């Protein structure tokens, strides 16, 4: 709709007929300087608005990535560790009971380490979680329930050392408290922390549409304006506007580059996070299956355990959509874990056959012995495979969040400063042009 | 200035572009984020607990056992074609027992071996058939599955505080009684409770689905009955102060009291029953054979000696060994 217009009247021709012209008229009316002033204001304001949007979007994104890298990641990890430590403690307590009389020192040591770790992580989590946080309730359950659990275990041990079978009942009561109270609470804590972490990723990876749209709009207007000015006046751009255009383009490029590289890292972090969570889950199922295997050996007569418990846990572990499948979907090679699971299931069947046929000593030997074909060794191998895969996933997670953080260094202020400079450039450049009409 | 101005500098266009940008930006907040899943859904839900066994039947008459015939064959020379001969051929007796009933059938944590008054009976039968009391395959299952083990033919005998009831006799053939069990109470030693009358309105624990439960629920006792998976669980509840007393057979309670000197067995017998060796109804020759062994051990005093050995410290006096009665 631009029409061919001859060069404007010379700027000096009869321009300043009167200082009487009101201040307002300098901004209104159809005269070219007024129009230039108005467009200058629009461009400057648009530059400032873009700068503010960029500042807000950038700091929120950096904050989200920081949260993901620090508070929430450490809480999610602590929750995962609590979950595993509790399940591990129970597996150790029950399998320690299987060996008659005194439990093996290695198992006792591992139990103690689990309880200490769980206690420490619970203390850390309770410092980070405020009372109104939904995670506070499961945390309370664990903090109050863990001493009760260890009390039951110690009573079971005392009876066991005295050779009295009442220890079995304390053991199965403890294990049942673990299964029905502590582990669900640990899972609920972990669930809410992983959700918080996911919310961080969502916040951090939301497309910076506002910035991009405003930046592009700004660029479009500035280029369009320059093109028309060139057609109208046959004059090249002035330095202010040119610099402003360059600043806008740089700001946009900064955003795009930071977003692309951070998103790559975030995608990896998200995947690694999902994998670590799934592997924690897998590890816990393995440990609970182990607890069940031991309980059936020592305390079945009370009606407190049946081998179905083992089968249930393993079925859940291997199910479509189960933790191993989820881990595989998130880039973990679970072939070794599946093989180790199959080996353990086989060894477990032999153990059950031995126990059911009355070869109790053989069954116990398979459960706690070092024979490589025994259930105990197969469990240890599987447990280690899952643990190692989890550690790898966690290392990947922390590297990826580090990358995301690096990519967004200065994203809060850098582009915002460029957009603000662009606003200044527009203001100065257009002011110059207006002055030419004096 | 001069002439009509024809859009020399278009101010409207930038404003429109910016307005569009603003609208797009607002709209963008509705866009989904790229990463982060809403929740992590994996598993949970604990396996359901075992359903309680069915109610005791209505019948009340307990059948007597089967009379022994002939003389006792020597170990390792069982009459051919008999059930005992099959066991001898197999080389081991398969017995359903418990491993959690102290003094009756329990696994000694120090040795990993099963011990107790019930185990003595099993060893005695194994010795009589095979000449070696150690040639036993012990099968430990839920107490509730005792009859099922026999029904499915998984064991030759069940020796696990198995009292003969009319209901169980539908699927199980019992030997004559080897122990006379009376239902009594276990209470804290210093509670001052000497009988069920003092427990009106108090919590009394027993194992779920047991005949003991039926007795406790009789209206004249007026106690608050609590049922748990087994008597050891009740014992734990008693020690934790969650219940005021545990009720079960005296032998079982004696095993509990022996593990906690702060408790004692009190009260008059609330019910009587005899423990028998459970066997399959389709193997009457084995039943007669076991009854013959029990006759012998009643006569030579070894049954009484075994009961005294295991229960004498807690039950004074140990109940007399029940007399054999036969239906044929």
Element order of chain B: H for helix, E for strand: HHEEEEHEHEEEEHEHEHEEEHH
| Low-confidence region ranges of chain B | 1-7, 38-57
Mind telling me which CATH architecture of the domain at 83-178 and 276-311 in chain B this is?
3-Layer(aba) Sandwich
The geometry of chain A reads as elongated
β-strand number of chain B: 14
**Tally of helical runs of chain B:** 9
Mean pLDDT of chain B: 84
Total beta-strand segments of chain A = 0
Quote the distance from N terminus to C terminus of chain B: 136 Å
Kindly report the name of the CATH homologous superfamily of the domain at 83-178 and 276-311 in chain B: Periplasmic binding protein-like II
Approximate strand percentage of chain A: under 5%
Estimate percent helicity of chain B.
Answer: 25-40%
Question: What would CATH call the class of the domain at 83-178 and 276-311 in chain B?
Answer: Alpha Beta
Q: Features of this protein?
A:
A: 438 residues, mainly alpha, 79% helix, 0% strand, disordered N terminus, B: 328 residues, alpha/beta, D-Maltodextrin-Binding Protein, domain 2, 6-stranded mixed sheet, 5-stranded mixed sheet, 14 strands
Topology:
The complex is a heterodimer of chains A (438) and B (328).
Chain A: H1 32-69, H2 71-98, H3 105-128, H4 136-161, H5 166-205, H6 209-233, H7 239-299, H8 308-318, H9 323-329, H10 335-356, H11 360-368, H12 375-407, H13 414-435
Chain B: H1 12-28, H2 83-90, E1 93-97, E2 100-101, E3 105-107, E4 114-115, H3 117-130, E5 136-140, H4 146-151, E6 157-158, E7 173-174, E8 179-188, E9 203-207, H5 211-216, E10 224-228, H6 231-239, E11 245-249, H7 250-259, E12 263-266, E13 272-275, E14 278-279, H8 284-299, H9 302-311
Parallel strand pairs in B: 1-5, 1-6, 9-10, 9-11
Antiparallel strand pairs in B: 2-3, 3-4, 6-14, 7-14, 8-11, 8-12, 8-13
